Amino acid sequence: MKKKIALVTGGLSGEAQISYKSAVTVGNNVDREKFDVYRIDINPEGWWYEPADGSARSKVNRDDFSVTDNGNQVHFDAVLLCIHGTPGEDGKLQGYFDMLGLPYTSCDAATSALTFNKRYTVAVAAFGGINVAKSMHLFSHTPVSPDAILANLRLPVFVKPNNGGSSIGMSKVNTAAELAPALEKAFREDTQVLVEEFISGREFTIGVFKSKGNTRVLPITEIITGNEFFDFEAKYQGKSQEITPAQIDAGMQQQLEAAAKRAYEVLNCRGVVRIDFIYNTERNEPYMLEVNTVPGQSEASVIPQQVRAMGMSLTDFYSAVIDEAFSNR
């Protein structure tokens, strides 16, 4: 009998628009001979089951995360999570699914909550021996002046909301005069802000996933952006070049793969994650920037590119990810 899979998309943040695109790619590539897929849209209006035949949506029963389809109550065997941002990437849904004993394809609640907080992520990574940039963690209830920040960090710096993704609210600051507006922009998105020293070098992003208990590293992608940095426009509006597999020598590849695998293990990740790095060519060392525990899966996203570059079909890849979720019960 085929397993019943809830493909959960949407979300409560500005990243929902990316989640819907991811759900299309994932939904089109899940093996329908192995799995029955039910699309669930979580949005500010509620939790909804959207039948594939286009009939009217219906509410999800939040008591047990079941739905009614053609008069039949459906209980799911696992959740295929495609929500970027809250509540699907910050641990909230993971905790809910844990309470129900329902397997899911992302990191667990603790790791999701940790990695959604950029400052806590790099702090734990540093404890694990992974190179990270020097940074400051700011809170809206405890203002810190630009002068005080620049007394601790060297320009240029990146200013970004501490919780969130898709580079929304992020700025690169090259001069002291630019810092205050950048802080104001970031605090409009979050009550916590990370200010991080710029590290020069080449930018890479690496997918890592676990299959049959083995941690596997996908082919590395180099990001070359025409913008000041890899911002929302560069990520999603064609203003960057993504080279997969990256054109790098064997030594650099080995360092980056080892760092990505180490970060995955130190942070106790599950499912497929994407980890961003800067490779500092002066020190010949990779520096971890951040971890995306529910990375974009749209046709233009990096993970599908890397899966294809590895010679694996997306159908086989998503089957492996779902199968691994069952092993975490």
Automatic annotation (TrEMBL):
EC number(s) recorded for this UniProt protein: 6.3.2.4
GO cellular component annotations of the record: cytoplasm
GO biological process: cell wall organization; peptidoglycan biosynthetic process; regulation of cell shape
Active site: E15, S166, S301
Signal sequence annotation: none
UniProt key word Transferase: no
Principal place of residence: cytoplasm
Pathway terms, separated by semicolons: Cell wall biogenesis; peptidoglycan biosynthesis
Function: Cell wall formation.
Name used for this protein in its record: D-alanine--D-alanine ligase
Organism: Sediminibacterium ginsengisoli
Gene that this sequence comes from: ddl
